Known about the structure:
4-stranded mixed sheet, 2 domains, alpha+beta, about 50% helix, 4 strands, Beta Polymerase, domain 2, nucleotidyltransferase activity
Amino acid sequence: xxxxxxxxxxxxxxxxxxxxxxxxxxxxxxxxxxxxxxxxxxxxxxxxxxxxxxxxxxxxxxxxxxxxxxxxxxxxxxxxxxxxxxxxxxxxxxxxxxxxxxxxxxxxxxxxxxxxxxxxxxxxxxxxxxxxxxxxxxxxxxxxxxxxxxxxxxxxxxxxxxxxxxxxxxxxxxxxxxxxxxxxxxxxxxxxxxxxxxxxxxxxxxxxxxxxxxxxxxxxxxxxxxxxxxxxxxxxxxxxxxxxxxxxxxxxxxxxxxxxxxxxxxxxx
Length: 269
């Protein structure tokens, strides 16, 4: 039993996905992903595999939603592992019209279970990822509340990505480049808006429209920009002018406000 704020009855963030929620149209994609991951990554390389995003949440739309996978490896990812993952992405994306892109994230189990990643990648696995293959690492991780620590460690590094966004926006010349950047920027900003207010609000959601509205209740002067980001994240046609507003205005303000309210994420090697 969960509340509308994404918490279980004990006040911890509830795991948001389940294979039972995958829409029927995507069942063949998930089955193929499971089979091909097992074929490409032997048991001595692969510890476990997870599905995350709109598919296990049950909100995926055929032809619009992408397939998101996390592979937990028994060692830190190598160049050969990345090549296998790239081939897997291309094969699944090319075969199934239901998905609009496939992304495979690779991480070593030592990293996922490390103290440094306890409130970032660890939380991601335990709360946002749905087990697909192998032993579920969530059993070796704590339960999580919507605390300031969790907010800081998940999105307290926004300032580090802003220069890259500026460069990519200036260099983008094709619709495909703009579309990819728009999705990345808008999704990240909306989620950062949500985690900025998460400790005050006291809950969790991955719904982008809902996240923008929750944020708007605390920062009404930035509500229009948060709603714009949520709309761009769901759209298929990029808008350079709107993206420029997010990258050059909302992004820098959000990074500064985050640092002032919650602090900065612990540095990574």
